[in-house]
Amino acid sequence: MTDIAPTGKILGATVRGLDLSRPLAEQDFAALLAALGAHGVLRFPAQAITPAQLRDFSARFGGLQRTVSDANEPGIPEVSILSNIVENGRPIGIADAGQDWHTDMSYNPTVGFVNVLHALKVPRRDGRALGSTSFANMHAAYEDLPADVKRELDGATAVHDFNKFWENMRARPGSERPPLSPEQRAKRPPSTHPVFLAHPITGRKVLYCNPGYAIRINELDAHRSDEMLEFLFAHQLQAKYQYTHEWTEGDVLMWDHIGTLHNAWPDYLPHEHRLIKRCQVMADRIFDPAFLPTAIRPARAAAAH
User: pTM of the prediction?
Assistant: First the structure.
């Protein structure tokens, strides 16, 4: 039997009783979607799954990002390797910590829906796990906005640009990243999304405007846009909206990109090894009402009204 136990905090629940190496039954899929909308971050502890099984579980929730890279699982381009481990002088993955607060793929026309990560090695120091991931609740951040801000931004849109993230990383001490070339920028042009987005599972509004990628609110003049973005970024990152997950080997962690922001903390050293396999699920199906199981549709409709 599947058991979903909330953390009791602003985000997060632990899911027990599911073996993710096996295909999801329809009722389990519906329960996980509902829990994802309610809790934003789901932990499945003690999962022993292969990269192919991680891919197959993730694909139940939408289309998977595919890349051809040395940082992918060999033969499985949907599974990325997040790691600081170097073998024979070559890194075996890419680092994902230290990117600051953001939500993945908001710079894409088709945004990210969920991340699914499987922890294989977790760095520790003095018995304490390092490399935790923090999250912020964008349902709550929207609900707490002042009424005048909600009115001013009703129907507004924001530009999200990958180059903002890239330049922020280049500005860090010791960075050797070159600027994006015109060809690289052309492959990832800015995208525009509503500042207030109706969440596809809950039907409630979320604040979809993150400090990692958002650069301009289109309906405001430049000065007011900068002023408003500064306010929104400070508002959404208040401690009361945050929850931090401390990793354990075997954890599969799934989180909702639309209803949360996240930040992976780079508090470990090169010899303190971290190894995680990841699938990035795109929101290419979730906005289609037919995608949602029947059990979720009435609750979402009620929330929207």
Answer: 0.94
